[in-house]
Every structure is written in structure tokens, then in C-alpha cells.
Amino acid sequence: MARHSSLPVTFIVPTLAILLVLSMVPTLYAIVIALQNRELSSTAYSYVWFSNFYDLFFDRRFLNAVWVSVKWEIVTVVATMAVAIGLGVLMFEVASPRLRNIYCLLFIIPVLLPRVSAAFVWKFAYHPLYGIATYPYRLLTGGLIFDPLSKPATALFAVASVDVWQWGLFFAVIVLKLLETLPPQPIEAARLDHAKRWQIHAYVTLPMLKAPLISLMFVKMIESLRSFDLIYVMTRGGPGVATETLDMYAFSQGFIESGKVSYASAMAVLMMIATVITFTMLWKRVQA
Amino acid sequence: MRPGRLIGKTVLAFAGFMAVFPLLWTALNSLKNNVDIITRVPRLVFTPTLANISYIIGRDSVMTGLYNSVIACGVAVLIGVVLGLPAAYSVARYPNRWAGDIQFFVLSLRFLPPVAVAIPLMVIWLQLGLYDTLAALIVTYSLLTISVIMWLAIPAFQAVPKEVEEAAFVDGYGAYSVFWRIALPVAARSLTGAVAFSFVLVWNEFLIALMLSSSNAKTLPIVASELSQQGMNVPWGILNASVVLLSLPPLLFLGVLSGFLNSVFRQKKT
């Protein structure tokens, strides 16, 4: 390589400078706004320091939103990984190479859809009277009505199913590709020892793929933070506050109900601190 | 093992059906009159109509949304290519002691909750008088496209055999022409995948666009979501048609992206 070239500097410095400005300005400004008492309705404001944060700890809706976000994170990540590993192994076991290619193409389609589209598709499908997904229930029960999106007990799972529909199927493709990269010898050896198919995967192949599977889970954890579009279109946080995640609550505080921009920003700052710390620690562990 | 295989194949076939059927059903509904959609028993046989689609295409708000989406995403991706690809090449080929930190910084931009970026940006754009303009949206999206393209292009450039580039140096090429004439063309396939991915990401983006636009700069996802806010008064066929219109552009990249996936995992094998 040419050692004395200006290329490394001219190629990276402008880009990094722009990235730093574009990311640090809003981040720092979010903190500044969180320390003020800005509202959408007026231009006057003053510094109230930590009072927004203090108020948050006594806001039961905020605490509910934290709990809903945690539930959302756990449900979607676990279900996505389960679907991905299940279908990935199945494709590896029973599908011919040609069928594998077809399934791979089909399974990538949902994740490419805008989340707004995916949310609409399923909102129609879950409609209690005319939905295609609730039709089998109507058929079997002779016309009873099941409305998954408006029951507090099922709403979160109904929305989460759309997220899993998009990501679980996509990750199944990746799990299959990972399985295909494995050397065949350990699998052959296990087969010679009369291991059953599921045993081969549980004790040989999946442990061999531990590192990439953990990275995959890490990616899903980050992507699960972006639940806003699905929830906004499908339930708007309802019924009641059953599906109101942190970003949904911050949005409705800041823009729909009261226009308390600073209060919303305080929430966003807490989210940002929590996610940056959590994911930095996780990333360092994944890399180690 | 035989019955097990049969069950496995059935489960797979069902999953494949589930992957596309809801979308196909939506596409079918976009061709139906309202009476054929609002039925207790789903109808497969109906008289098709193009009324929904022509209504959608004829509506000013939808066309403006489409125009805004194309411009905002197109320009942001272009900026991402111009700034992201050279930076990625520099990290991949001229590693220094900050290379790891730079990669982590680029990835960590993805940890930021969109709402935490959107609220301050809204205030900033309001103060600069740029709120609800495409320029504001483009600048904001550039953060996304640059970081994603950089993140995906670093391994793509690393996969280019070093010998090819070294041979070019021996032939008297400068560092810049090696980038232009060797690295870019050799890595082109993976890079196309990375760029397509960044396009799909910003095309599908919703929260930031929702918060940074009020009327002029609305992108297509926002327009589509607003159609539904009018509740069931809007004929479902029209809503379904708008969903189809919104979903088509990302699906055009299906081939490119699945090829990209294949090439990523083929590299890992060797």
C-alpha cells in the first residue's frame, strides 16, 4: 500500500466531522431541552434543571411505558429468535436446494416492507368482522367476534406478531445461511454416533453458531427499539395504555396531548442513556 | 423419520404461505369495490375495479408524498454514497489505531432512539426556519445513510483481495486511482447491496418524517398513515391501494438484497 498518501485523511475526516456534528448537536440539544420547560404553544421558556426528570419518577403513565417497552423488547426478541432458529433448521433439514432458494426469497419480503405498510396489512387482517386473520376463528365458532387489537391482554402480542412476521422470517434466512457455512464433518460424526436430527442441532450445530447467533440477537434488540411505526398505526398505544411504549408516550406528551416538548425530551434522554449504556456494554461483551 | 419430515415440510410451506399471503390479500383488496371487502366471509371471486388505484394516483397529497419520498431518500442516499464509501475504504485499507473506535461510533449511531433525535431537531429546524422542508429531512436522513453505508461497506472493501490493489500500485497507480479504478469496481456488487439497504431504510422511515413535517415535506408513509386516521370512512380499497404503492419501491430491491445476503455469507465461508 502507498504509505505516504493523503487519501486516508481526505477520505475520512470530512465524513467523520459531518457525522459528529449531525449526531452530537441533536443529542446535546436534547439534554438542554430536557432541562428547560419548553412547550409547543409558547416561545417563552426558562431552565428548570432536573424537575422534568423528577416528575417522571412519579408519573404512573411513564412507569407503565417503561414496563410496556421492556415487555415489548423481551417478547419480540425471544419470539424472533425462536422463529428464526426453528424455521432455519427446518429449511436446512427438509428443503431441497431449489426450495431453499424460493423460501429465502419469500422470507425476505416482509422485512422489506415499510413498517407502516406491514402495520396496515395486519390491521386489516385483524379486523374482528372483516379481517382475513380472524376469519378462521369466526368460521370455527360460528360467527363469534375476536378483536385482538382492542383487548388489553392480547393487543401487545398482536402488534408483536407483526414485528416477528417481519424479522423472524428474515432471520430464518440468515440462520440457514449460517448453517450452510458449517463444515460437514462434525454433523457426519454425530450422525455416525446415531444422534437424532434434533440432537445434532441442539448439541452440535447451534453451539457452533453461538457467536453469530448472539450478534443476531443483538441486532434484533436494537431494531426492536424502533417499534413506534407499528404501534402508532395499529393501536396508538391503546387500548388504554396497554401498548404505550416509551417512544409512543414521549410522542403523545410532546405533540398530541399537551405539547410538553421538554418533558418529552427528558423521557427521550433517559431512553438514550439507558440504551447507549446497555448496548455499549453488550457490544463490548459480544466482541470480547 | 418419515412423518417428522412431512410435518416439517408442512410447517415450512405454511410459513412460506404466511410470508406473502397477507400482502397478496392486500393487493387483491386494492382491486375490490367496498362491498366485496366488507364481507364476513372473505371473497376470492369479485368484479375487479381500478377505481382505488386511479383515485390514489390522482390525489395530490399522495403524489406530493411520493415526490418528497423520492427526493428526500434519493438525495440522502447520494450523500451517503459520496461521503460514506470513501470513509469506509479509508477505514478498511488504511487502518489506524482509531479504526475500531470509528466503527463502534458509526454503529452506536443506530442505538440512538429516533425520538431522542427528532425532538431536538424539530426545535432546531424551527429556529432556523427550515422546519417542514425537504432540506431538513435530507440532512437528517444523511446521518442514517452515511452511517449505514459506512458500516456495510467496510467489510465489502476488506473482502477485495489486497494483491489486486498492490499490483495496481506497482503499475504506478496513485492511491486515489486505485480506489476509483480497482476497489470500487471489484467491490461493486456488495456495495450496491449496501446502498440499496440504506435506501430501503430511509424509504421506510416514519417517526422522524412524522415529527419534521407538517404539510409541505410529508413523505409517502406519513400520507398513507393519515389516510387511515379518517377511520373507516375512507373506503378500504383506497387504503389498500396506498399500502401497495408504498410497498412497491422496497420490493424492487428484493433481488439485489438477497444477492447481497448471499455474497456476505459466501465471504464468510472462505
TrEMBL record, chain A:
Pfam families: BPD_transp_1
Bilayer disposition of the protein: Multi-pass membrane protein
Subcellular location, record wording: Cell membrane
PROSITE patterns named in the record: ABC_TM1
Origin: domain of life: Bacteria
Gene3D superfamilies reported for this sequence: MetI-like (1.10.3720.10)
Residue spans crossing the bilayer: 12-35, 74-95, 102-122, 155-179, 200-219, 261-283
GO cellular component: plasma membrane
This protein's UniProt keywords: Cell membrane, Membrane, Transmembrane, Transmembrane helix, Transport
Domain ABC transmembrane type-1 residues, every copy: 66-282
Primary localization: membrane
Tagged with keyword Translocase: no
InterPro entries: MetI-like (IPR000515), MetI-like_sf (IPR035906), UgpAE/MalFG_permease (IPR050809)
GO annotation (BP), single: transmembrane transport
PANTHER family linked to this entry: BLL4140 PROTEIN, DIACETYLCHITOBIOSE UPTAKE SYSTEM PERMEASE PROTEIN DASB
Sequence similarity: Belongs to the binding-protein-dependent transport system permease family.
Protein name per Swiss-Prot or TrEMBL: Carbohydrate ABC transporter membrane protein 1, CUT1 family
From TrEMBL, chain B:
GO CC annotation: plasma membrane
Gene3D superfamilies on file: MetI-like (1.10.3720.10)
Keywords (A to Z) from UniProt: Cell membrane, Membrane, Transmembrane, Transmembrane helix, Transport
Localisation: Cell membrane
InterPro entries documented for this protein: BP-dep_ABC_trans_perm, MetI-like, MetI-like_sf
Record has Transmembrane helix as a keyword: yes
Claim: Protein biosynthesis is one of the keywords in the record: no
Membrane topology: Multi-pass membrane protein
Biological processes, Gene Ontology terms: transmembrane transport
Domain ABC transmembrane type-1: 66-257
Membrane spanning stretches: 6-28, 69-92, 104-128, 134-154, 191-214, 234-261
Family note: Belongs to the binding-protein-dependent transport system permease family.
Listed name of the protein: Carbohydrate ABC transporter membrane protein 2, CUT1 family
